[in-house]
Design a protein that fits this description.
It is built from 18 helices and 24 strands. The strands form 6 sheets. Strands 1, 2, 10, 11, 12, 13, 14 and 22 form an 8-stranded mixed β-sheet that branches. Strands 8-7-17-18-19-16-20 form a 7-stranded mixed β-sheet, with helices on both faces. By secondary structure, the protein is α/β, with parallel strands linked by helices. α2 (41-53) runs parallel beside α11. It has 3 domains: 25-69 and 242-330 and 443-526, FAD/NAD(P)-binding domain; 74-126 and 232-239 and 335-434, Polyamine Oxidase, Chain A, domain 2; 150-224, no CATH class. The structure holds flavin-adenine dinucleotide and 2-acetamido-2-deoxy-beta-D-glucopyranose (NAG) (4 copies). Residues 37-43, 62-65, 70-72, 91-94, 96, 271-272, 302-304, 307, 312-313, 335, 432, 437-438, 441-442, 471-472, 480-482, 484-485 line the site of flavin-adenine dinucleotide.
């Protein structure tokens, strides 16, 4: 398999042969029934499902990066003393709800190395310092706190255990959605101290990557049911990367498709700039930095909500208003992990150290130990800590040079572990919200996005479903997750296959205008949509 896949990549990476005989730049480089935009998890799921489940192989994949995987993106930390490289996950890292997910089956199939995460294996530190050296003058040192003795955990956990009932009762009474902040407040949670704000961050923002005053109460919490909060999450520590399981599935799909007409299915380093989906045109025209590609039937977009919101790709004609309203109503959150490599572990055995910044909620909030027992176990090749922050803090840090990020991280670490903490050997600072291929990390459901908006987000545009949309954001149950991207890609491929084979191409229901609900009934009956 390794041999075959490198051959396929060599083929894919080779520059498209451009025939000099072609009369104009309007002549497509390649044509296929289906063009899939993006070779992330959902794009791979589409290709895999078409080729291996539906025997449809006339597709092309256009991917801007030089490798597949998308937000499943593995990076390196290098120990300059030994030259040893450790692979860490810049993007997705965990398998959530492992037992019931198909991702677990894939992980087993490829023997992906993971370790169970224990969120109770943690310490808490109350900070006493800002991000400026000068702030250290005249203030007492910070201290570790016993979260159980503080009573804080019991208070929050009691509220959190009641929140799903609170939501269900409101839904039964047809009461409107609220923000997660309002819901928590009404149940009696009113954080005042830095530690309380941190505890809330850990329970809300650490997952949603947006603050509770933005999140939809109905959709920010209920998701835990689907992803299986009751099962230990598995952290992927495989040195082949999380992407490995998806890349292998892509290779299988490409191998199955190799014999069909177009010789080249995966076009890497190919950035889409414009999609002409005009229903009057005989084919869909996809403009890229490597020329024009044509789809006889469907274009499948896996572009992130962030990319769609930021006009990174031009739509000709513009997307219909109902589609735009759905796109702009959804949230693209920023979740960012800063990795630091050290030559010794100066921290404890626990998996997490939570840091309560006295000034800013969510500033350097959680340090995670990759050398905890069962993970990398510690080695002469280096010890890794990483900090996760989200939203405004992630955007702030992303705009700082690496050197300043390192200095700020060191100030915080020396506050917790003392002045002898050594300088890091390497640092990795992802900048997801500045990356034109993503414009953020993953989607989140804000107050204001209604079910009809999310439904519309998933609907194709064009009379013959010229453009079909998929991606993590489109999964109703598991938006924001690897599973969401994978399952939605598979489902979408099933629908595309139905249309292509003429077996079944159902009309789609679209809510062209979404109105305030005034009468009782189920969601679908309440809102008028059109079939086309
Ligand atoms: C930091 C971070 C941490 C995460 N942690 C977890 C986790 O622990 N567990 C979990 O389940 N999920 C996690 N996720 C979410 C998960 O990674 C995503 O849900 C999933 O990878 C999205 O896959 P996708 O195919 O929908 O989108 P993408 O991966 O974004 O795929 C879209 C593809 O399109 C390409 N592209 C973009 N623009 C263009 C263009 N103009 N032309 C051509 N190609 C283009 C991109 O390069 C990309 O390959 C995390 C994400 C991030 C960023
Ligand atoms: C797959 O499709 C090809 C041509 O489209 C056909 O020759 C082949 O028999 C099909 N295979 C299966 C298993 O249906
Ligand atoms: C797993 O995949 C199967 C086959 O595609 C699908 O029917 C099932 O719904 C998936 N399970 C989950 C939990 O998504
Ligand atoms: C965390 O786990 C390690 C290793 O099992 C153990 O030594 C340590 O005591 C645990 N700490 C906490 C706070 O649970
Ligand atoms: C760490 O040690 C555990 C228990 O000894 C072992 O199961 C695991 O494979 C080790 N992990 C690595 C990355 O070496």
């Amino acid at each position: 398999m390794a041999r075959l896949s490198s051959l396929l990549y060599a083929l894919a990476a080779a520059k498209t042969a451009w025939s000099a005989a072609l009369p104009s730049d309007q002549q497509p480089v390649a044509t296929a029934d289906v063009i899939i935009i993006g070779a992330g998890i959902s794009g791979i799921a589409v290709a895999r499902e078409l080729a291996l489940e539906h025997n449809i192989t006339d597709f092309l994949i256009l991917e801007a990066r030089s490798e597949p995987g998308g937000r499943a993106h593995t990076e390196s930390l290098t120990n300059p003393k030994t030259g040893h490289v450790t692979k860490v996950e810049k993007g997705c890292n965990w398998i959530q709800g492992p037992r019931r997910q198909n991702i677990t089956k894939l992980a087993k199939k490829y023997n992906l190395q993971t370790a169970p995460q224990d969120y109770d294996n943690r310490t808490w530190f109350e900070g006493r310092r800002g991000v400026d050296e000068a702030d250290t003058v005249d203030v007492a040192a910070g201290k570790f706190v016993d979260i159980d003795a503080s009573g804080l955990a019991t208070l929050y956990d009691d509220i959190s255990s009641r929140i799903l009932d609170f939501i269900q009762n409101r839904l039964d009474d047809m009461e409107v959605d609220l923000t997660a902040r309002t819901g928590l407040s009404m149940l009696g949670w009113r954080p005042k101290t830095a530690l309380q704000r941190l505890y809330e961050w850990v329970n809300v923002d650490f997952t949603t990557a947006q603050p509770p005053q933005v999140c939809s109460l109905y959709n920010a919490f209920e998701q835990e049911d689907y992803v299986g909060a009751d099962e230990p999450e598995q952290l992927v520590i495989d040195q082949r990367g999380y992407k490995h399981i998806f890349v292998e599935e892509l290779n299988a799909a490409l191998a199955a498709a190799a014999g069909s007409p177009a010789s080249q299915r995966l076009h890497l380093d190919t950035t889409v700039t414009e999609i002409n989906w005009s229903p009057s045109s005989p084919s869909r025209l996809v403009h890229t930095n490597r020329g024009l590609f044509a789809a006889r039937k469907h274009v499948v977009s896996t572009l992130s909500i962030g990319v769609l919101q930021d006009d990174r790709v031009k739509w000709t004609p513009p997307l219909p208003e109902w589609k735009q309203e759905a796109i702009f109503s959804f949230g693209m959150a920023v979740y960012q992990k800063i990795f630091l490599l050290f030559d010794r572990a100066f921290w404890g055995p626990e998996q997490f150290t939570y840091y309560a910044d006295p000034e800013v909620r969510g500033r350097w909030p959680v340090w995670q130990n990759l050398n905890a027992e069962g993970f990398f176990n510690g080695s002469r090749d280096g010890y890794i800590l990483f900090n996760t922050h989200v939203d405004a803090e992630a955007r702030r840090v992303a705009r700082m040079p690496d050197e300043d990020v390192r200095a700020e991280a060191m100030l915080k670490l020396r506050e917790i572990y003392g002045p002898d903490v050594p300088e890091p050997l390497d640092i990795l600072v992802p900048r997801w919200d500045l990356d034109p291929l993503y414009m953020g990390s993953y989607s989140n459901w804000p107050l204001g996005q209604l079910d009809q908006h999310h439904w519309n987000l998933r609907q194709p545009v064009g009379k013959r479903k010229e453009v079909v949309f998929t991606g993590e954001s489109n999964s109703r149950e598991m938006f924001g997750y690897v599973q969401g991207a994978w399952e939605d890609g598979k489902e979408t491929a099933g629908r595309v296959a139905g249309c292509l084979t003429g077996r079944e191409c159902p009309s789609s229901l679209v809510y062209e205008t979404i109105k305030t609900c005034v009468e009782a009934g189920s969601v679908v009956k309440r809102f008028e949509g059109s079939w086309y």
